[in-house]
Prior knowledge:
The structure holds 2 protein chains of 2 kinds. By secondary structure, chain A is mostly helical. Chain A folds into 2 domains: 1-58; 60-122. Chain A is 57% helix and 0% strand. Chain A has 5 helices and no strands. Chain A has helices at residues 6-39, 42-45, 61-64, 77-96, 115-121. Chain B has one domain (31-168). Chain B is 85% helix and 0% strand. Chain B has helices at 2-18, 28-36, 38-80, 86-117, 125-168.
Amino acid sequence: MANNPDKPIRGRRNLMILGASSILIAVATTVASLQIYRATGDIYLDRSRPGYIFEDEKHSEEDDQKENFSNEGEINAGVMDEYLKELDTIIERIDDSADDFSPEPLSDDSLNISVDDEEEQQ
Amino acid sequence: MRKTFAIVSAVILVASAVNPVCAQTISDEQQGLISSNCASIKLQLQNVERLGSKSRQHLGAQYESVLTNLIINLNLRLVKNNRANAEIAEQQIKLSSERDTFKSKFTDYSRELESLKNTDCKSDPQHFYNKLLSVRAKRSEISDSMKRLREIIGEHRASVEKVREELKNGQ
């Protein structure tokens, strides 16, 4: 049985093809998943995305969701009072953020592109 | 020919009625201001984006908390006590649907804001300004959604008070 000199060369070539195709598949699936991540809008809602919100600015989940009303037990006026108390705590937090999406931060004045401002300064 | 002209005019009219705020010719002076303040505008936009994300996270958690920790549990408890309340059940559906709208409006806004950040304000201030108008419109849609959510929560509060009064009066 004589050794075929082509065999090791083909093996090496196959290995290279396998490696290259694995890399290509990995790149293609990564690009596709990033596209889906972006297209569905999850990128804008993903709180774990690096740089999304600075760590010290994050509201802790404990603060955000500590209210809880049990779905078990009787219903009476006292229970409803407790419910309203918990609801009012959340309403207060919502009202504190009522102006968070006001037009002000993107107004011409805030961006310093108001022509009137410029004229007034002169 | 006249018919084609009429159709084209009608299409333009409808298009401008659908999206009336997204194009506005600005003066040369304002274009100059945008070009010269480009760097600081971009910084301000980054800040607005960061604060918006923070608010979205906070408000989203509050709406989620009202829905899953309070209303759903209250509805279950009312049903278990044979006091099912159609008004409160409807509020649960309305709140869930509007919360999804809030999320989707925020996604649309973020997409527009990102596109605005990537627009060259130095060399094409007019295009930049038109995009800014579009971002403002999207931002106002989020605000509208927040108002609707607050209204639903307010209605819910009134319904719960009504139930409490009924219980107090022994009904």
